[in-house]
Design a protein that fits this description.
- The protein has a domain at about 50-90 and about 125-180: Nuclear Transport Factor 2, Chain: A (Roll).
- Helix content is about 45%, strand content about 15%.
- The chain has helices at about 1-10, 20-30, 50-55, 60-80, 85-90, 90-105, 115-120, 120-125; strands spanning about 55-60, 140, 145-150, 155-165, 170, 175-180.
- Strands 1, 2, 3, 4, 5 and 6 form a six-stranded antiparallel β-sheet that branches.
- Helix 6 packs across helix 7.
- The longest helix has 19 residues, at about 60-80.
- Residues about 1-25 have low confidence and may be disordered.
Length: about 180
């Protein structure tokens, strides 16, 4: 009888409702509970800058596969320093901006996207390494642009900005960004 009374008092709570106790224990046990479900969770940094990880919505599998194919081809062209092919994977908007920037700083000498990449070299394209070992892990999309995220062969997490153009994903940055910086 005494045991039943002790259990009843303990179950009736220590001042809180059952819902908040459950919510509190869930938050404590799962620090990612407030973040979106899906592949982007692999990149969440609790308490950190998660703007990319929470941007828009997670793309469909078909969108992610298409973006992965483009990014793989782009990275191979970049690693080979094949600037013409590299530029072919850029969105028109990004290729135009890159060319305009190079045209301005070169005092009119640079007039094309491949020439802009050659002119800027490592400043624009990083170290040219292809550190993508498989498909991208997450693609966050919204309003015609998005961010591809992947775990690199180098143990770092990387982000690549992309844009939707003519129904396809295109790269909209000259190099992948190190998520850890």
């Amino acid at each position: 009888m005494v045991l039943a009374l002790v259990l009843a008092v303990a179950a009736s709570g220590c001042g809180g409702s059952g819902a908040s106790t459950t919510e509190d224990s869930r938050t404590v046990s799962d620090p990612l509970a407030e973040y979106p479900e899906g592949p982007t969770r692999e990149f969440i940094v609790p308490g950190g800058d998660n703007a990319v990880q929470t941007f828009g919505r997670e793309a469909t599998l078909a969108e992610r596969k298409q973006a992965s194919r483009v990014i793989h081809k782009w990275m191979r062209a970049r690693a080979a320093q094949d600037w013409k092919k590299d530029c072919s994977y850029f969105s028109r908007r990004y290729a135009k901006e890159l060319t305009a920037d190079a045209h301005e700083v070169s005092e009119g000498q640079v007039k094309s996207c491949p020439a802009a990449l050659a002119y800027f070299g490592h400043v624009a394209s990083g170290d040219y390494k292809n550190n993508l070992s498989g498909p991208i892990d997450s693609l966050r999309v919204g309003d015609g642009h998005g961010y591809a995220q992947y775990h690199g062969r180098d143990g770092k997490d990387w982000v690549i900005a992309v844009e939707r153009e003519d129904g396809r994903w295109k790269v909209s940055i000259a190099t992948a960004l190190d998520r850890n910086k």
